[in-house]
Each structure stands twice: as C-alpha cells, then as structure tokens.
Amino acid sequence: MSGANRASRSTSISGGVSVQAAFLVAFKQLVPEHTVTVAKGLVRMRVKHFPAIFLLANTISGIAFSTDTAMILAWVGFFTSWTYLRFFRVSPSLATASTGEGDLIHGDASDTFAFSQFFPDVVQPPIQKVADALFELLVLIKICTPFSTEDIDTGNQQAAARGEHALPSLLNPTGGSSTRGGGARREEAERRRALALRALDQRLHTATVKQPTVARASEGGETLPETSYEPEQTGVRPQAQQSETTA
Amino acid sequence: MFFPSPARIVARLTKLEKLLTLLNGAARYRSWEVDRTQALGSREYYAPYITIVPGISIKYPWVLLTATFAESNILGLLATGALLLYGGRYLERAWSSTEYVKFFALVAFIPNVVAYLLYIALYSLTGNTGLAYVLTLAL
C-alpha cells in the first residue's frame, strides 16, 4: 500500500501553464488579426493561431516527454477561459451605436470566437458540428441559453469595435486610436472587417437557403422556436460594416 | 472595492510567482537532500506545501491556490513571468483591473481543481500514477 501511495505522490501539479493558455485565449478574443513577428521576420504568426499552437506543443510534449500535468493544465486552462469569455463574462459595450439598450454585454457570441475557430481551417467543419451538437444538447437540458441572432450581431459588433483600435495594443498601452503604426493597424482592421463580412454573408446565405436550425459559423444553434427573439432587423446595422449586405 | 493601480497588481503577481518558484525549488531540493536515491531532477521529489500532489494534498487545501505560482523550472518561470508582465499589463488595461483579477483568479484556480480531481480519478481507476501510464495503456 505504501508503494502505491508513494507512486501516486510522484506527480506534482504546479505551474502557470493554465494561465498561459488562458491568456492566449484572451489575446485571441481581443486582437485575433494581430501579426507577431519573431526573430526579425523569421517567424510570423497571427494571434488567432496562438492557442492552437500552444495546445499542440503542450500535447506533443505531454505525450512524448510525459509532462502530462502541463498538458492537462493547458487544456483545462483553455477550456476554462474560453467558457468564461464566451458565456459568462459581463463586459461593457465598446460600440456605442449598437442596439441602444444597456451598456453591459453577457458573454461574447461573435462568430470569430466560436470554439471551432480555434483550430485549423481544415478541421473546423467537423469540430463545428460536434460543438453545435453539444451546445444544443446543453441547451436542451437547460444548462446553456441559446444565442439569438441579436446576441451574435452584438458580438460581431464588439469584435469589429475592438478591431477599430478601441483597445490598447501591446505597443501602445494607452489605447485609443493613434497615428503610430497606422498602416499595419488599418490592414488589420481591414482583415477583421473582411472576416466579419464573410461570416455575416455565410450566415445570411445559409439562413435564406434553409430555415432555422442549420450549421452556422458559430457555436450554438439557431434560435429554438420557443425561445427565439426576433428583433426588427431593419434598424440594427453594425457600425463597422459599411458595405451593403443584402437583406 | 479598492484595488491598487494596475501596474502594481501585475508586479505583485509576478513577485508572488517568483517567490513561490523559489520556495518550490528549495522544497524540492530539500526533499531530495533527505533521500538521495534518485537524481535531482526526478519527479520523485515534490513540495507538498506549495504544489498539488494528488495523493496527499487533501491535507493541505491551500495548495490549490499556490500551485499556479510555483514553477518547476527556469523556462516555465521565464515564460509565465513574461506573460504575466506583458500580457497581464495589456489585459489589465483592456479590461478593468477588477475584471482582470477576476479572470486571473478564475483561470488560476479552476484548472488546478479540475486537474487534481482528474488525477485522483485516474489513480483510483488505474492504480497507477501519471497520465503517461494511462495513455500507454490505452495505446
């Protein structure tokens, strides 16, 4: 018995790996299109890929070098922070011209922060399906509330507002827009806008092709009949999307 | 609720982390000293008062809070330290101080609890320590 006890003691869990994973998720929510260059242009990565690469590295290390505590902590940290940021965090609104209601937003329903968006494009569709199915299951047993289209729009607005440099950047801690590095920022903002537009177009396209419950770019099914809330779509236009989207 | 200025929170956190890492290192060294049968870096040695050790941490519940701050190697210390300093400062300005501390507390605490329970569960299922063993069984 003492031998077995001793064996169980030789794993000690410690370290800030979970915090590292969580921070990467938070960075992805805040500046997903930011490109980080390391070693004078040798390595360039977008922030939106950081969490996946981090998890991959930890998983490989965990299996190959048996640093399994770090692997577990990394994954759990990832899940914890994503769940919190997506469903629970109450944040003040950055986009003032949004729905015009209160200034607090629950969670972040934007398309770009969906679970499947964390992984490479190749594997996104299957992950999306699994995640959607899981979410609908949780909705059925009343653990989660479904995301209405209004929530998603709000989320996308927030994401776009973040891209309009309403936030401090790593190099410019005071926040607000500044003329420094204007070119790169504009390019970044353009990319975000393009992504948001693409997501919106995709959603509109699938919404017009089929009716409600359809696989979408975000986790969370389309509104279920008994809980749907359809705001008037005409008055609400996201401020950052300037091109005309077909209604 | 009163919170000190942003930079001080981050500075405090990193200081705490450095302190606990040192403690961790010292404690591990100490337990190695007691019983020199294994190599210094081996996993047989641990610091039960600071890190989570699935078998015996039930006696020391505070380690669920302190384990996040105690790194077991220099690389981890540097990585977490840098991330806390730069990333933490950024997040603290992007969100408010309160939000950041809430987020940090959440993410530093919950994964520890989950990992702890997971290892306990795995141990009682397989009778052996470490995920690596379970994985090799599965493969």
Task: Explain this structure.
The complex is a heterodimer of chains A (247) and B (139). Chain A is mainly α and 247 residues long. Chain A has seven helices and four strands; from the N terminus they run ααββααββααα. Chain A has helices at residues 2-9, 17-30, 50-64, 68-88, 124-140, 149-166, 182-209; strands spanning 35-38, 43-46, 90-92, 104-106. In chain A, strands 1-2 form a two-stranded antiparallel ribbon. Chain A has a two-stranded antiparallel sheet with strand order 3-4. The radius of gyration of chain A is 20 Å and the shape is globular. The model of chain A is unreliable at 1-9, 96-102, 169-182, 213-226 and 233-247 (pLDDT under 50). With 139 residues, chain B is an all-alpha fold. Chain B is built from five helices and no strands. The radius of gyration of chain B is 17 Å and the shape is globular. In chain B, 36% of the residues are buried. In chain B, 66% of the residues lie in helices and 0% in strands. Mean pLDDT of chain B is 67; it is low at 32-37 and 132-139. Classes of the chains: A mainly alpha (247), B mainly alpha (139). The interface between A and B is large, with 43 and 55 residues.
